Amino acid sequence: MTHNAETRYLASRCPTCGAPKSRPSQTAYVYCDFCGSLADYDFRKACEIPQQMPGPVYQNLVAALQKKTAAALAAGDRKTYRDLQLKLYEAWVDACPNAVPPRVRDAEYKAAYVANLADAGTVAAFDPQSVALSERMNAATVAIKWITGKPGVPPRVHPDSFAPVLDAVLASLEYALSDAVQSQITPHPDMAPPALQKRMSQAMFVQGWLPYLDEANAKALLERTGLAQEYVTAPPLHGENAACGHCKAAVEVFPGAKRVVCDSCGHQLRVDRRLACDGCGTHLLLDGGGNAVNCPFCQRRLERIAVPFEWPGIAT
Fold first, then answer.
1. Which residues, other chains included, contact 94 with Cβ-Cβ below 8 Å and sequence gap of 6+?
2. Per-residue model confidence as pLDDT tens digits over 160-175
3. pLDDT tens for residues 18-46?
4. Of 237, 231, 265, whose CA–CA distance to 250 is shortest?
5. Distance between CA atoms of 35 and 102, rounded to whole angstroms?
6. In this structure, are 65 and 143 located in the same domain?
7. What is the rounded distance in angstroms from the CA atom of residue 201 to the CA atom of residue 203?
8. One domain, residues 255 and 213
9. Which of 61, 60, 62, 24 is nearest to 44 (CA)?
10. Range(s) of the domain holding residue 15
11. Residue 286 forms beta bridges with which residues?
């Protein structure tokens, strides 16, 4: 597959294997084209799609669980509170697919991702310092002064009143990513480094406030949060197409790649070794998990015969 030379994409380098990004990402979550690791977060890509509202199903669930959540918090019952958070975040992930990594379509990944969010929400509710930082953010937000413009023009935040909000948010994120908090949380399934987790956390905050800031303050906000990113023109690229063994979508593979994330189903696939289906002959890309798979083309049952990743008919 060859990409148009005029295509622009985020200039980034994978923190895991060091490889540069070689093609535009389909989502704001930028996965490495060579090792399949989460490599960066493309804020501009995120802004192409307006922030989603969760919708009535999620809102009804929030309303239904509100009293139970408040009761668990008042009783100091962390387990019940976390169980409720798991339900809420699973519903939120289903309601807002554009706000989450594409890998949530992989059930195992989704479970770990939801657990990470639920743990973070539980710590934020019970940890005294987290609560104090949250109260500081709320107070700063309430104190914001607005500049009203002409009819039909959105109001602007007075620059002097926004600084305390930003300071409070950044302080809260800094603490949330500290060892003291992270030791209480199920690890992010992508094992993203702290700097990248921080950028992803900041992005939703920034995306929500940018429309209400003047140009100078918007630029300062992007720079301070690390979201003023560099974009480059993509040169013509030549990759080989292979079939995803889970959803049969075409997956572009570059020379030297070991793993890649399927844009269609979200599975992280091994691309250095391929399974040749003995039913239809299609070479399939698979992940390292599971002991059996049905060929998505002919539905023949294919079973693993050894560990790790030894399937009958492996093609390299």
1. 58
2. 899 999 999 999 999 9
3. 888 877 888 888 899 999 999 988 877 77
4. 265
5. 16
6. yes
7. 6
8. no
9. 24
10. 8-42
11. 270
Q: How far is CA 37 from CA 33, 231, 236, 257, in A?
A: 8, 20, 23, 12
- Considering the domain architecture, whether residues 158 and 69 belong to the same structural domain is answered as yes
Amino acid code (one letter) for 86: L
SS3 content of the chain, % helix, strand, coil (to 5): 45, 15, 40
Does residue 310 lie in a domain region?
yes
Last residue of a domain, one of 197, 224, 251: 224
Q: Could you give the angle at the alpha carbon of 92 between the alpha carbons of 139 and 169, nearest 5°? A: 25
Name residues whose C-beta falls within 8 Å of residue 122's C-beta, 6 or more positions apart in sequence: 78, 81, 82, 85
- What DSSP character marks residue 98? G
**Residue 193 domain-assigned?**
yes
Predicted TM-score of the model (pTM): 0.82
Parallel, antiparallel or unpaired: strands 250-253 and 259-261: unpaired
Is residue 233 situated within a structural domain?
A: no
Rounded Cα distance between 134 and 255, Å, is 47
- For residues 241 and 250, the answer to whether their CB atoms sit within 8 Å is yes
Tokens 């250095």 correspond to 272
